[in-house]
Amino acid sequence: MAKGIQRDQQQSHNMITILTLILLVIIQMQVVSAGVGDGLMGHIESCSNEGEEIQLAIKNSKCFKCSCQNGLVNCYSSCPSTDDCFLLDSKSGDTCCRRCKGCTFRGVPYESGAEWTDPEDPCKTYKCIASVVTETIQKCYSQCDDNQMMPPRPGECCPTCQSCKINGQTVAEGQEVVASIDDRCLVCQCNENKLSCAKKTCPILQCPKTKQKQHPNECCPRCTEQREFVPVIGKCIFNKDVYYDKTQFTPDRCTNCTCLNGTSICQRATCPILECSPEFQEDDGCCPRCVVAEVRSECTHQGITYANNETWNMGPCRSCRCNGGTIRCSEMRCPQVKCRGNEELKVPPGECCPKCLETAGTCTVFGDPHFKTFDGKFFSFQGSCKYLLAADCLTHNFSIRLTNDGRGTKRSSWPKTVTLKLGNLRINLGQKLRVKVNGTRVLLPYVNDAVTIERLPEGGIMLRSKLGLAIEWDGSNNFLQISVPAHYKHRLCGLCGNYNGSVRDDLTGRDGRQHGDNEVWHFANSWKVGGLKSCSRPREHRNVAATPTCNKRKSSFYCRPLRQSSVFGKCDNRVSPDNYIESCRMDVCECPSGNCHCDSFAAYAHECRRLGIKLPDWRTDTNCPAAGGWRRNNQLLDNEFIKKHVPHSLLQPRAPDRTPPPLH
């Protein structure tokens, strides 16, 4: 009797322990937001090593990757995604990344998302998702005739076709294609020019059906919510239940699970590959099956009749086959890609999937000439001669020369003309939007077999060549930009640099010598062309800074709008204004008119627009003339912006002519 009472008390105690444990787990399982990772907080920092990775001297910097983009340090999280994880590990003190609970299988730990095959049976596959291992058997599928089918390769499950084609459409190496858009779990892949196809089984998910979402173009559902848990040693958490070690449970009619050392090991049935369309299928509780349907030998699509086994394309991503009266279409599967700062996601002509394509290289000249090279190096140079700005120094396809005008000053200069040599063409872009082709003035728009030249709605002109080269010129000696396709990388030379992805060697002279920032004069003059007759000053002065006489307060007031969000929006989050502010201050000190600060404003605004940043009407806010406007006789006091923002005591005659040091 006493033993019976003790047994009942022990069972009661065990039940209370279990209920308490479940209650504690449920309390600890909190819904957390999608943005679980810690973010970097602080101020945006500027940088000069454009395009290069930046190492952070901070704790847990391994959780972030940073690089220099448009003069700013740009950082993003390098933690694995946990967006669809229903079981997040409680955060430990030695890491900044939130992680989905992993699995242990046969004594080996696996991270959530890991997939592997049985070394003794390549048809048996496993996948770990949030502490659940799903075991399935692949079902193979053939897309080719029997005489083109090859046996499985060593270590693989399914036979292969002799070429990577599906419905007559070529599949690229490494690319996946959905064999039937009616069954997106039926996937083929090209590997070493052999195509193999298999039916994928979706892994069992931790979240209940009400927290799952099936995306239209994906095979398997995903969890839509996240929960954080505190580890329960030796037990398994599944959904909202806790299972003891070696306990068996059945989540659905297709799946049987066993709790082993904190990981749920689940065997799941792989549904058969059906040859009938969805309207002739019915569900038996676990897998769909075909019901009897009329068998036809032809298919009709968009009014066109196709014979049995006939194939046709429906664009670069989709192809179809007539299969016993049923149309079966396959669709290319595009991988998710993340582009770097100097790349953009584009779909190449005739292809299905977008690719990260390097953006065009741009070189900019503005103001009392300030230069931004193809690789992002800023420097200033006020020579008044003719210089090789950019050229294809490998195959000599083109060259661009820039002629500067000193306008009677001792050290200042402004771009006067731009000359493009392209094959048998010599195109001169001059003042007031005058254009000459082989010495003859032409009217715009101008089109021939090699180039197109037209006026821009916002002012200035644009020259585009069939080589992909483009030149934008405002026609009033204030702004010039050259764009070249990425395939010109490592082929260029001149003042615009060598376009090799590094700013460190952009000041490379004609003789191959690399110059320092304090040797801009030597670097630039090594690219001088045309001799003394091309110079507007009989004697050039070396690029040495004179005694500072510019009123710094005045230049700061002039250039302040470059940091004002009301004028340039949120562009300073994408493009550092520091170099443009420095350029602006230099130009204000050298200014022969009242609007020289506008040159730096225009260059900064142009760079913002090039990156797709929408700007307010900055010209109205700053009273800067429209692009291409002449400003030779403007006076300081005529500028409403200056009246508003610059104290009258600072409106002094301009400082004596001097050349500021180069930008770094």
From TrEMBL:
One of its GO terms (molecular function) is BMP receptor binding. Residues 162-224, 234-291, 297-357 form the VWFC domain. InterPro entries: Kielin_Chordin-BMP_Reg, VWF/SSPO/ZAN-like_Cys-rich_dom, VWF_dom, VWF_type-D. It comes from the Eukaryota. The keyword Secreted applies. This is BMP-binding endothelial regulator protein. One of its GO terms (cellular component) is extracellular region. GO terms for biological process: imaginal disc-derived wing vein specification; positive regulation of BMP signaling pathway. Keywords: Repeat, Secreted, Signal. SMART domains: C8, VWC, VWD. The keyword Magnesium does not apply. Residues 1-34 form the signal peptide. It is found in: Secreted. Residues 361-536 form the VWFD domain. The gene is Dwil\GK20745.
